[in-house]
Each structure stands twice: as C-alpha cells, then as structure tokens.
Amino acid sequence: MASRTKGKTTIEVGGDGVAVITLINPPVNSLSFDVLDNLKSNYEEALSRNDVKAIVITGAKGKFSGGFDISGFGEIQKGTRKEPKVGYISIDIITDLLEAARKPSVAAIDGLALGGGLELSMACHARISAPGAQLGLPELQLGVIPGFGGTQRLPRLVGLTKALEMILTSKPVKAEEGHSLGLIDAVVPPAELLNAARRWALDIAERRKPWVSSVLKTDKLPPLGEAREILKFAKEQTRKQAPNMKHPLMCLEAVEVGIVSGPRAGLQKEAEVGAQVVRLDTTKSLIHVFFSQRGTSKVPGVTDRGLVPRKIKKVAIIGGGLMGSGIATALILSNYPVVLKEVNEKFLEAGIGRVKANLQSRVKKGRMSQEKFEKTMSLLKGSLDYESFRDVDMVIEAVIENISLKQQIFADLEKYCPQHCILASNTSTIDLNKIGERTKSQDRIVGAHFFSPAHVMPLLEIVRTDHTSAQVIVDLLDVGKKIKKTPVVVGNCTGFAVNRMFFPYTQAAMFLAEHGTDPYLIDRAASKFGMPMGPFRLCDLVGFGVAIATATQFIENFPERTNKSMIIPLMQEDKRAGEATGKGFYLYDDKRKAKPDPELKKYIEKARSMSGVSVDPKLAKLSEKEIIEMMFFPVVNEACRVFAEGIAVKASDLDIAGIMGMGFPPYRGGIMHWADSIGSKYIHSKLDEWSKSYGDFFVPCAFLAERASKGAPLSAPLEQARSRL
Ligand SMILES: C[C@H](O)CC(=O)SCCNC(=O)CCNC(=O)[C@H](O)C(C)(C)COP(=O)(O)OP(=O)(O)OC[C@H]1O[C@@H](n2cnc3c(N)ncnc32)[C@H](O)[C@@H]1OP(=O)(O)O
C-alpha cells in the first residue's frame, strides 16, 4: 500500500438538499485510490442522509478531473499496490453505487474531464459544463483503456462512430462540441456552474428533468449489423496504424461486447481487459513516457532554485531560411511578437513568405480562421538591420552553420541588444563556446535547437554551456512550454543529444548496406520496429547536403567510431541528392511517393570497391531482428556515452529526446528504457562480438561495459555526481 494519502473528496450539504462532493487532488484532481475511497464514503453518506435529495460532483480549483491517477498504474506494475478486485471501481462503485443510486447526481465540469474523470461524469445523470472545458478519453495514448465504464457509456451518449474516434485518437473535444454531441447537457458560465448543477440535480429528483442512466441508453447506438461493420473497419484501421500494440484492439473488444451482449457484459469485459493491459510492456513504456516527458523540465540545480521565468515580450530571429521561418512561425502562433532579420530585401521577403505559407496551410486545412491568420501575421516584422533589436528580450540566431559568421553575429548582438537579452543559437553542431568567443556575454548564450519543421516538431533541445546562467535556462524552458514544445536541457557537445545518439543509426545502416544487407530490407525492418521511416528514406528526406555536413562534423570529432562510407558522396556526384532532387536511395514521383531503385546497387558496389569492402555472407542474410539490433545497439552505445558524460541529466531525458526528435516509438519507452528491457549484458555482448569482427564502430563504451558487468540497468542514475552540467 502507498504510504501517504493522495488527495481526498469533501462533502457539503446545502439548505436546498443538494450534497456537493468535491474532488481535491492538485494539480489536476486525479482520481487516486484515496480519492476514489473518499468518493465512495461521501457518496454513501449522501445516499443515507435524509436531508440530501440530490448530489453534485465537482472538482476543486476550476478542474473537474484529469482522470485516474496514472502513478497508480505504476504502483500496480511494480507490485507496490495490491490491485483492486476486477470491476471494483467501474462496476461496484461507479455503476452500482453512483449510477444506480436512488438519488440523482449531476457532474459540474470546469477546465477538464479526461479519462476516468469524464467516465465518472458520464455515470452521473446529467453533465453541466463551463465553456471550453476539455472532455476526452485519452487512455489509449497511455497504453491503457477507458476502464471506468467509458467503453460502454461514451458510445451510448455520442454514438458509436464519434465515440470510437474520440477513443482511438485520444483527442478531447471542447464542452461546446460535447453539448452538440449529447455528452454535455448544458454549457453555462463558470460563475453559474455550481448553482446550475444544483438546480438541475433537484429538477431530476423532482422529475422536472429526465433521469438518464447513460449505460442504459440505446437511442444513439446503430443497429447491430451496422455496429459490427463500424467496429470491423475500426479494427482494420487499428491493425494498420498500431501494428505493434495490443491494447487498442483489446479496447475495441470491450466496446463490441457491450454492443452485442449488453452493457453489463461490456463493463465486465472492460474490467477484465483493463486489468490485463496494465501488464503489457507497451503500457509500461507509454506510462514511463508520460512521466518522463513531464520530467524534462525538472532540472536539478536549475529549476529547484526558486527562479521565476522572466517575461519575454519580444523575440528577434536572425535568418529567415527553413529553420528561422519555422521558429518564427512557432513563436507568433503563441503570440510572441517577432522581428525577423535578413541580409537583404529578397531574402527577407522569402523568409516572411515562408512564415505566411506555414500559416496559410493551417487556414487551408480549416485549422485557422482568416482573421486569426491576419492577427498572427501582424506579430511578425521584418528588418534588415539591428535597430529594432534594442528592446528584444531574446534573439535566436538561425543562419547557416558557419563559425565565423556566427561569431560576428554574436559580437554584433552584444552591441545592439539590451544587457538582459538572451542570446540563443539554433546551431545543430557547432560548439556554443566557440560561437560566443568574441563576446563577454557567455552567461546568456544558450542553444535553442529546434527540429525541422520547427513549427511542427515537438522537441526543443536547450543547450547549455558551463557558463549559461540558470535564469536563462528557466526563461527558455518557459518559452518552450508556451510554444508547446517539450524542452530537454542538454550539455554542449557535437550533435548535442539527439543528433549524437542517432548518428550511429544511419552509420550502421550504411555499414550494413556496404556489407551486403539489402537497404530496402533495412528500411522495412526499421519501419516495422516503429520508426516513422527507415534510415535511407530519412537520408533522402533531409537531403544528402545535410547528411554529408553532419557526417563531416562527426568524423572530425569522433574519428575512432565513425564508419566512412562513399555511398552518399557517389550518388551526390551524380546529382541524386535525396527527395528534393527526385532521387536518392529511392526514386520519387510527383506526389513524392518513394519507389525502390534497381540502380542503387551500382552505387553500393562502387562504394564497396572504393572502401575495399566485400559482401559478408552473414550480413547479407540478416533477419529483421538482427538488423534492428545492429542498427540500434550502436545508438544505445552512444546514448550511454552521452549519459555518462553528463550531456543529459537523466536517462529518461534521452528517452524523450529520441522519441520527439527522431520518432523512436514511444511504446518502446525511448532508447534507454528499451535497452533496459533487453538488458545491458546482452547488448554489451553483442557489441563486443561485432567489434571483434567488424571494427571499432561497434566497441562498447566503458559505461556500458561497467553496467553490463554489474548487470545494472543503463538508466539508473550515475553513481557519482559526474554531471558536467
Ligand atoms: C481507468 C481510467 O480510465 C484510466 C485513466 O483515467 S488514465 C488517465 C487519463 N487521463 C489522462 O491521460 C490525462 C493526462 N494528463 C494530461 O493530459 C495533462 O496533464 C493535462 C491536460 C491534464 C494537464 O496538462 P498541463 O496543464 O500541461 O500540465 P502537466 O504538466 O501535463 O500536468 C501537471 C501535473 O499533473 C500530473 N498529472 C496530470 N494528469 C495526471 C493523472 N491523470 N494522474 C497523475 N498525475 C497527473 C502531471 O504528471 C504533472 O505532474 P508534475 O507537475 O509533478 O510534473
């Protein structure tokens, strides 16, 4: 059992005969076991008291509930909490005690009702909401299923198709949409919420309003044949979109049982499936990702010092290329006024044009109104000089990767920007100490490494040097959150965390191709493993220019463990440089669809002969599992180095960096979490074996060797405070 209580509920009975039960468990009133125990006692009290005619359930401080306390799943997985009897919460408490009670209840929803929170409200006999509240069942995203009756009640309230959409996408709807769907009975201003809910509850008690048990509704359900077709289609889509996960299909089974055999059988099935999914590896990984993602903005020695983020009122961006314009888009979308500086009118116009195009694509997709487009664009000003930099609070430099150019820019910035201004660079490879060499402002120099396209990709690497002040990091963490990025704070080194960890991924792929493994098989194996695309398709997407520039940095900085391959340079000589040129490892049609190219063999054979490599019969016949190991164990090896060097504060930060920056499948929990699921001993032994046959690229690092010798997890914190940060 958990040692301290987490959250509670209170009950207050008014003169009108309404008992108001309030969920209290900051910050999101999650439904911990303690809250649920209290809720049960308060409900029983309300039902037994003669002065109570009806019940209202609400959440403290403007939030109904963020759902079941997710850490409870972790406790069950680790065995530190005894699992409640199957169906105890969803059937015994929520259905038989709450919904079947002889006194009506109304949910008064403000802020959010997610997961178990929405499910609890659906068991009430009506739901009143404040405008804008978020309503959703995001459980699948966490690897679990709606387990408090959501698989049964949501289809009965909003119809099967809409319910499946909400469950399968995990996307919430706003209260207003919920109202039109039939999920919410009335939307009222926040100040009137509680009184409106009290009146509604009394109206039900006195039969002036209908007494609806959602679980017994049938009017929104399609006829059985149609329902089976809808479910069949949903299952097919799910198998296609989430082939490596079991829980979405298990969830659909619970929905199906409810429709075919009735809600009681459905609730029972949901409870059984709910208990099973908690033990799945994919679920453990997704829950790890939930907490790790929130953990990235907790940086020891920085965020625990009571520093308050300063207000960033205006930001300047230098360079309106792909990155600069993407960063500008991300900032204006979150209401930051931005000055975009370029070297001449033509480039400036092109940069502003790119921002415009980014926003226009939202308007086209119906995700932004024309009015909002104009308002957002009005936050962007162009400039050809530094005059407008005199009142900016932050500058982000996003020019080409040229050290002396960057040094000049930072020296200029020091002259023109106010003393408090944060001086950030979006460099992906260059040492920040070198960039700031010609200034005396080292404490306010920081890396703000965005991933392309910057207004879409969710990761922001915040790179600090030994001199960057904690205040600057706190400020940038706050900006990151405001522009809806997941920030990860990392140390200064070539490639920082993401590029450095994942460089061996492409390196290993080139090595295998040169030694006889089919590149298209490699890409297929990577996609099946869960990567958004394989390494060769990725090289085509980023373009060979970028691939060669990055490789050069790595070869210079880590010569002992880089595998030099001529495949890409040879293709580039022939003007095939990736998707932008219509061909690279693949051929591309007008719709950018990739098709394998038989000509590729020619380049690989030539590269092979230039490097004096011959086909290795063993490597030419690798299974998909072996391909994955040979590509990802070197990634694990580099991640270990990054961790051991203190470039990342926590192993879980590397998990998030890889998931958000490279698309490593979240249901594998991130690179370090995945490695630990395999075991340091096995990974070490494989790398060791390959290094003996194939050279230094595979040599396991000292950190990995040490952990393997002890059988210790790779993600365990460093024993000594060796962090450079
Ligand atoms: C049986 C049931 O069907 C199963 C369930 O209900 S599973 C739970 C379903 N609910 C969810 O998936 C919602 C998860 N939470 C969220 O999406 C977001 O936290 C939110 C939209 C509620 C709020 O977002 P935001 O304001 O950005 O705050 P965010 O930083 O994410 O969370 C604030 C804190 O609340 C915690 N938290 C949020 N939801 C939680 C939950 N359901 N359980 C436990 N902790 C939760 C976060 O871990 C974080 O803690 P920290 O401050 O110590 O890092």
From TrEMBL:
GO terms for molecular function: (3S)-3-hydroxyacyl-CoA dehydrogenase (NAD+) activity; 3-hydroxybutyryl-CoA epimerase activity; delta(3)-delta(2)-enoyl-CoA isomerase activity; enoyl-CoA hydratase activity; NAD+ binding. It is found in: Peroxisome. Residues 314-492 form the 3-hydroxyacyl-CoA dehydrogenase NAD binding domain. Pathway: Lipid metabolism; fatty acid beta-oxidation. Its main location: other. GO terms for biological process: fatty acid beta-oxidation. Residues 495-588 form the 3-hydroxyacyl-CoA dehydrogenase C-terminal domain. GO terms for cellular component: peroxisome. It catalyses: a (3E)-enoyl-CoA = a 4-saturated (2E)-enoyl-CoA; a 4-saturated-(3S)-3-hydroxyacyl-CoA = a (3E)-enoyl-CoA + H2O; (3S)-3-hydroxybutanoyl-CoA = (3R)-3-hydroxybutanoyl-CoA; a (3S)-3-hydroxyacyl-CoA = a (2E)-enoyl-CoA + H2O. Keywords: Fatty acid metabolism, Isomerase, Lipid metabolism, Lyase, Multifunctional enzyme, NAD, Oxidoreductase, Peroxisome. Pfam families: 3HCDH (PF00725), 3HCDH_N (PF02737), ECH_1 (PF00378). PROSITE patterns: 3HCDH (PS00067), ENOYL_COA_HYDRATASE (PS00166). In the N-terminal section; belongs to the enoyl-CoA hydratase/isomerase family. Belongs to the enoyl-CoA hydratase/isomerase family. This is 3-hydroxyacyl-CoA dehydrogenase. It comes from Thlaspi arvense (Field penny-cress). The lineage of its organism: Eukaryota, Viridiplantae, Streptophyta, Embryophyta, Tracheophyta.
